[in-house]
């Protein structure tokens, strides 16, 4: 990309300046965390309806590391079969300050502290990101730091989507398997907000955390099989893809809801699980649902309102610098994080 500069005669006609650059975490091939490298790339140029944000913090979530390693293989059909040609910069959520606004933007001004989600366009693992003023960006909650605000929307919107899909309501007994993960921590809090009686399943080190989020009961999966506790649930939400059909159906009322938020294993394992889910639903043993979470109008505003009312909080496990992005990927992919893995930026170069 070239930009013409002022001048005279032939010199002005041929003069160009280099585009403004920014640092970003870029992967040009699929593979382990090391394929993600920090590079200088052109800074995005927003349009008249857009808000340009200087990113202070972002996160590494399951969608990031799955795209990075093309797991499952279906990712290759979405992001480029031989390499990640469509989405070289990952990152779905962020928080930062408004750097500039388009000529017709009225909701934001330079210097505003905001949080947002790029959704499946990704691109938040960069010093700058832009969104339409009406698309996925809002003033951050007043009682959160930028670091905390960066770790709200992926887990919060995913939990909202699936809890609504399951029509969770007051009086229901709900089990959340993987209650200490990035989606699970919000699912526990939001299920309680909707009036459900919540049991959270997690490891020993996370028992106190899940209790503090509002869970009525907690089950340590390293010591106890959740399906053998004698409880029968109206709905089971599996946030990590590890609860299994046999155990889940054992503690789920007939015709109850089994929501599969996370997928685990290779493509064959995932396909086998989908086929079994169809069979279970057809026989009436349970209603099995899954899919990809999408934001509904008003979701971001609702999450912000609940945060500011003290009814919702995020959990940050570890913080990394942008230069440590590969380590952040490795830790997130290991599957034992509590809440979110946050990546912090130095002040963006101007």
Structural features, described:
- With 350 residues, this protein is of the alpha/beta class.
- The chain has two domains: 3-152 and 314-344, Medium-chain alcohol dehydrogenases, catalytic domain (Quinone Oxidoreductase, Chain A, domain 1); 154-289, Rossmann fold (3-Layer(aba) Sandwich).
- The protein has helices at residues 9-14, 62-69, 74-79, 146-150, 153-165, 184-193, 207-212, 245-251, 267-283, 299-308, 325-333, and strands at 3-4, 16-17, 21-27, 36-42, 50-59, 93-101, 113-117, 128-132, 137-139, 173-177, 197-202, 217-220, 233-238, 252-260, 286-289, 316-321, 340-344.
- The strands form four sheets. Strands 5, 6, 7, 8, 9, 16 and 17 form a seven-stranded mixed sheet that branches. A six-stranded parallel sheet has the order 12-11-10-13-14-15. Strands 1-2 form a two-stranded antiparallel sheet.
- Helix 11 (325-333) links the parallel strand 16 and strand 17 (340-344).
- The two termini are 18 Å apart.
- Residues 1-15 have low confidence and may be disordered.
- CATH domain fold name of the largest domain: Quinone Oxidoreductase, Chain A, domain 1
Poorly predicted sequence stretches spanning 5 or more consecutive residues = 1-15
CATH architecture of the largest domain: Alpha-Beta Complex
Let me know the largest β-sheet: 7 strands, mixed
Number of helices: 11
Mean pLDDT: 89
CATH class of the largest domain: Alpha Beta
Coarse morphology = globular
**Radius of gyration, in angstroms, nearest whole number:** 22 Å
Going by CATH, the homologous superfamily of the largest domain would be: Medium-chain alcohol dehydrogenases, catalytic domain
Structural class: alpha/beta
Helix content: 25-40%
- Give the domain tally: 2
Give the percentage of residues in beta strands: 25-35%
List SSEs in N-to-C order.
EHEEEEHHEEEEHHEHEHEEHEHEHEHE
């Amino acid at each position: 990309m070239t930009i013409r500069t002022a001048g005279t005669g032939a010199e002005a006609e041929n003069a160009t300046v280099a585009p403004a650059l920014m640092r970003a975490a870029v992967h040009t091939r699929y593979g382990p965390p090391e394929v993600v490298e920090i590079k200088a790339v052109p800074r995005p140029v927003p349009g008249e309806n857009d808000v340009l944000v200087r990113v202070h913090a972002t996160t590494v979530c399951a969608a990031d590391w799955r795209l990075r390693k093309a797991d499952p293989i279906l990712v290759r059909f979405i992001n480029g079969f031989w390499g990640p040609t469509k989405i070289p910069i990952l990152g779905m959520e962020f928080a930062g300050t408004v750097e500039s606004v388009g000529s017709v933007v009225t909701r934001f001004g330079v210097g505003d502290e905001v949080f947002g989600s790029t959704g499946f366009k990704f691109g938040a693992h960069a010093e700058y990101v832009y969104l339409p003023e009406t698309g996925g960006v809002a003033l951050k909650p007043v009682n959160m730091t930028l670091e905390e605000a960066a770790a709200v929307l992926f887990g919060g919107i995913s939990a909202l989507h699936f809890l609504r899909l399951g029509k969770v309501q007051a009086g229901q007994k709900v089990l959340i398997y993987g209650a200490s993960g990035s989606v699970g921590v919000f699912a526990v809090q939001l299920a309680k907000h909707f009036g459900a009686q919540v049991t959270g399943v997690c490891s020993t080190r996370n028992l106190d955390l899940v209790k503090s989020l509002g869970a009525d009961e907690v089950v340590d999966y390293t010591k106890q099989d959740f399906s053998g506790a004698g409880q029968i649930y109206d709905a089971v939400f599996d946030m990590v893809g590890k609860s299994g059909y046999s155990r889940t159906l054992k503690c789920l009322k007939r015709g109850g809801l089994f929501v599969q938020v996370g997928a685990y294993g290779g493509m064959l394992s995932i396909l086998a699980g989908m086929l079994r889910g169809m069979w279970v639903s057809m026989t009436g043993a349970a209603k099995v649902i899954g899919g990809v979470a999408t934001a509904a109008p008003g979701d971001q505003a609702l999450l912000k309102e609940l945060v500011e009312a003290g009814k919702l909080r995020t959990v940050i496990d570890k913080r990394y610098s942008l230069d440590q992005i590969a380590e952040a990927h490795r830790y997130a992919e290991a599957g034992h994080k509590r809440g979110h893995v946050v990546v912090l930026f130095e002040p963006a170069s101007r």
